[in-house]
Amino acid sequence: MDPVRNPFAPGAGQRPPELAGRDREVDAFEVVLERVARGRPERSLVLAGLRGVGKTVLLAELRSMAVRRGWGAGKVEARPEAGLRRPLSAALHRAIRDLAVRHRAPDRVEEVLAVLKAFALKANPDGAKLRDRWQPGIDVPAAQGRADSGDIEIDLVELFTEVAELAADVGTGIALLIDEMQDVQPADVSALCAACHELSQSGAPLVVVGAGLPHLPALLSASKSYSERLFRYVRIDRLDRSDADRAVVAPIEREDAAITSDALDALFTISGGYPYFVQAYGKATWDAAVRAEISDEDVRLAAPEAESELAVGFFGSRYERATPAEREYLRAMAELVEGRDEPAPTASIAEYLERRPSSLSPARDSLIKKGLVYSGERGLIAFTVPHFGRYLLTQE
């Protein structure tokens, strides 16, 4: 069929043509927005799941919902080697600009921007030369004595308070969305939890929505014990059969085409219901189809093309980041679980490789930091990427 009309959209964070299977999360966030608008307390939100299940897409959808309700909204993508001050400052700057167009007191907006600038400038290391100092691009003088202590926990509470009060002035709220939240540095995680705790007690209209890998709830709990009650945790998983079918059928029918039930069976089996794979196999199948009704034969013919693209862009790019020792560890995991999406016992990996468990700790810890594996339970390790074990078993 005409590739120009191909409705499927495999891509990192790219919204699929049909956002299927996420109605529960969208409806729950609508309740959060409405409760905050009425001055009622509400918990911040954490989305946790494997790669390829659509966390980033859902995060973008929640941001759009907040903007449509007149909220200020900013998004951060955390990086393991970077602190939170600079990206958080940029995200909140955007959120404040969203609110400024509705605020009747420009002087008040400038007061909050001055506090934000003071917070942002503390991202510069002490003693840095003027030419090396980062400037946040905020055209007001920095405030003195507010959010500028250098202690991220104190400063973040003060900054969040100022921004939330600005939102309250116009009768809305602030949504701060943090992707790859498991990569936030420990001190910054602690500060985020403390700031959210402080604001939840006062009922301030600021909500943090974080998204990350399955072990994110454990990381937050380890940082602050009360985080178990501070956030509402939502597990984002693969689509069930009906939602996976809807993600395929709806965009195809909008293009005046059709798909057989056998083809839907084949697509669900090969994709496992993971949203990214649904899009990847759906796109390849559309391009391979020669008639307006897609058949299971089209799925079979298209599968190698889809798998070739996944091998390079989805699996291969991650595998290339691993060192030889880390690849050995990954391969052992894959062989122990026979390519299935299941956790492997760390003791069994050591036994399989005929090594002491302690000698494998550096490789395991590095793979966790690189986001290739995670430990959801003591003594077990699993891939963060669906079907990664199956991919590894196809490599020489």
TrEMBL record:
Keywords from the named record: Heme, Iron, Metal-binding
Keyword Heme: yes
Residues in Cytochrome c domain copies: 168-357
Annotated region described as Disordered, given as residue ranges: 1-22
InterPro entries according to UniProt: AAA_16, Cyt_c-like_dom, P-loop_NTPase, WH-like_DNA-bd_sf
UniProt entry tagged with the keyword Heme: yes
Gene3D superfamilies per the UniProt record, alphabetical: P-loop containing nucleotide triphosphate hydrolases, Winged helix-like DNA-binding domain superfamily/Winged helix DNA-binding domain
Official protein name in the record: Cytochrome c domain-containing protein
Taxonomic placement: Bacteria, Bacillati, Actinomycetota, Actinomycetes, Pseudonocardiales
